[in-house]
Input
Amino acid sequence: EPEVTQTPSHQVTQMGQEVILRCVPISNHLYFYWYRQILGQKVEFLVSFYNNEISEKSEIFDDQFSVERPDGSNFTLKIRSTKLEDSAMYFCASSDPRGRDNEQFFGPGTRLTVL
Amino acid sequence: RKEVEQDPGPFNVPEGATVAFNCTYSNSASQSFFWYRQDCRKEPKLLMSVYSSGNEDGRFTAQLNRASQYISLLIRDSKLSDSATYLCVASGDSSYKLIFGSGTRLLVRP
Output
């Protein structure tokens, strides 16, 4: 069964450093997403991406964040200057909007720890 | 008001019990609804979509009431492996953003 993959599984960084989180969505999916989950809190939407551009973003997704699809398979989330409060699980998801409900399937996540 | 609201639980039930989870959502423009399950420190996994007509998948039955903006999930004959956090999810105004509830934790004991 096809699945979303993410690397790395855990990233530790110093405050102020840039990080890039990588995702390989399911191959025939057209929409890509990033969500985050701070420990003990709910899953929060960050951004959706379609046809090489952002289709929607949340208030969390400020100028420190950017997304890119550099080739036909990878989808990345960059945080330019990490803050302590960026520590969270970051989940990538993808969906095929041609399906009945545009169901989103999640990758295993990258745990980001900012020191 | 929270966008998607759930009872946090935990629900502690014996194997074989029937358990029901409820959820309300605030955005009447939401188009799609789902139940996901999440195991500790893992990703949300899609359990099922939710429709007004109700839908069933084995031991799981989900129901949507658009008029009262209410979603339910019923688990029959619960198994130890059902122990997890159940996330109620509504889409935003478009279907391209999911809004998650905080989850209801289920513990199934032997």
Remarks:
- The longest strand of chain B covers residues 84-91.
- DSSP finds no helices and eleven strands in chain B.
- Chain B touches chain A at residues 32, 34, 38, 41-46, 49, 87, 91-92, 94-103 (CB under 8 Å).
